[in-house]
Amino acid sequence: MTTSQVKPKPGDLIEIFRGAFQHWVIYVGKGYIIHLVRPQTSVHAQGGSCSMSMQSDMAVVKKEQLQDVVGTDRYTVNNLLDDKYKPRPVKLILQDAHSLLGQELPYSVFSENCEHLVTEMRYGKAESRQVQNAVDVGVGMGVATSFGVGALPAAVATTIFSWKRRCRPPQPP
C-alpha cells in the first residue's frame, strides 16, 4: 500500500487510484472507511464501486479497513470540494455514513457512483469530478471527431462513458 502524505481524519474523503479511474471512500476513524461495493468476491479485486464491470445496477454500503480496500494501490486524502462547499459537521457526516451501512443502493452510469455518494455525505451535494471529466473529454472528442480527426476519439469516449457508475443514498420525499 502506498499511503497518503496526510493522515485522514473522520469525515475526510479518500481517493484511491485504480489505474484508469479512482475509487472514493469516506474515512470514519480508527483505520476504517465506508464505501459503496459492487457484489463480487473481493473488494480490491473489483476496484471498489467504480470498477468497469457492469454486472449489477446495485451496490452495498460497507465499512472496512482502509488498508484492506487500498491493497497495493496509491491513495490520498482529497477533500476536493472544500473550496466550493462548506463541509457538513463531522458528526452528521459520520451519522449519515453509518446509517447507510448494509443498504443496497442504486448504481447507475453518471448519476450514482462512489464519488457522488461520498461528496453528498461530506458536502450535502452529490458531485463527481470523474463523470464531469468524462463528459468534458467526450464533448471535446465529439467535436474533434466532427472535424475529421478520426474515429479513435469517439471510441475512447465511448469506453470512458461505458464504465462510469454512481451511487447515492435515496433522497427523502
Topology (elements, then pairings):
Blueprint (H helix, E strand, L loop, with lengths): L12 E5 L4 E8 L2 E6 L5 H4 L11 E8 H5 L3 E4 L12 H10 L4 E3 L7 H10 L5 H18 L5 H12 L10
Antiparallel strand pairs: 1-2, 1-5, 2-3, 3-4, 4-6
Helix pairs in contact: 5-6
Parts with pLDDT < 50 across at least 5 consecutive residues: 41-47, 51-55, 143-173
- Terminus-to-terminus distance: 42 Å
Give the rounded overall mean pLDDT: 76
Lateral arrangement of strands in the main beta sheet = 5-1-2-3-4-6
Please provide the count of β strands.
Answer: 6
Shape: globular
The rounded Rg comes to: 16 Å
| SSE-based structural type | alpha+beta
Largest sheet: 6 strands, antiparallel
Beta-sheet strand percentage?
Answer: 15-25%
**Percentage of residues assigned to helices:** 25-40%
